[in-house]
Every structure is written in C-alpha cells, then in structure tokens.
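To fix ideas, we quote verbatim a fold written out as tokens:
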Amino acid sequence: MPAIALLGEFNPTSPTHAATNAAIAHSRAALDIAVAAEWVATDAIEPALLARFAGIWVAPGSPYKNMDNTLWAIQYARENHVPCFGTCGGFQHMLLEYARNVLSFKDAHHAEYDPYASDLFISELTCSLAGREMELTFVDGSTVARIYGSLTATEAYYCNFGVNPDKVHLLKRGPLHITGSDAEGEIRVIELPDHPFFLATLFVPQTKSTPSRPHPLVNAFLGVVVSNTPA
C-alpha cells in the first residue's frame, strides 16, 4: 500500500491537522483507494525514512521544529519527482525551497523564523488571513484550474504569513508557475510543470472537505500518489 508522509508536528487540538486527517479519509473512501498516511515530525526527517513514502504533504503548523529538514524533504520531492502537496505553512516552505535551490537565493528566509533576515521571501501579512474565506482566480490551463474544473473558487485561510510582494518579480524568473491569486492579486497557488504533482496553496483546502464532497485537490494528490506507485 502506498503511503504519504504528513510533514509537521502533529497537534491533535489543531483544527487544520484534524481536517488533514479527515480529508484524506474522505478522499480515500470516495476514490476507493488504499493509501496510508503518517505524520512525520520535522526533526525526524531523514533520507531512509522518506524513501518509504510515495508522496509528501507539507502540512500547516509552522514554524516547524526543523526548517532545514523540511526544506531538504521538499527538495528531495522536487528533484526525484515525488508527488508533493503543500498547504498554508507548506506553501510557504515550498516557495522558500524553490527560492534557495532553484533561483539560488541562498539567504532566502521566512519572517516567522527570523523577522530581521536580510532576504525575506516570506513576510508577515499586513492583514492576517486567519479565519477568512476569500475568492480565488486560477490561470486558465493550469493544473489547479483543471483539478477544480473552474477558474474560480472560495477557500479558507489560517495564516499570518505569505509571499513578500517585493520578491514576486524574482519568483517569475524560473520554471515555477504562479497559478492562483486572490481578488487583490496576491499569490495563493504555485505549481511546477513537468512534475507528477508539485502544487501548493496558501489556503487550507482540507478544511472544506466533507464525506459527501471530498476536496478536489486532495483527491488529485492522492490519485497521483496511487498512479505513480508501481503495482
């Protein structure tokens, strides 16, 4: 049975962590597939452990105990074509890994860990998105638009950090595609073409999943994990 690693420090009282577990169960039942899911604390990440997993979900809940381990795991997934999904904090760290290792901004940093870092790619939001729902617009022809079957959606947020507006022009230099934005034009979805599944959202789609309507992004991620696993 293929398994996915849920990267983050699991907290049973966290609504986003409970929603992650529930959303996986919803999609597993709806798709009638067998996929195991295991929470992996970031300070426990190491190569032999990750080799056991067919997919990686970088979960909400940052700051993580070990940012370097988390970024290494994302790089491993990106370079080895392992399906990788990031939500909320996962989005932030997938973007940070890309800035460091693809765009070569080695000092790219995250304000939640060091608000005074010299090269912040992830900064504190001027207005917190925690507890808000906002409408999104997707790029026509993108993976995320295909998954939703729509160019718009409304999703919920739990975050206080996002893309530094001063770095957006730099992020557009490489192969990563910015494929979702809110009404103000802020980046909310990123994806990497020519990869089985490398997609991240600043919003938390799993919180809107239900047994009768599992979330399409979770369905898509688990579907790719299963289809990429040798029989």
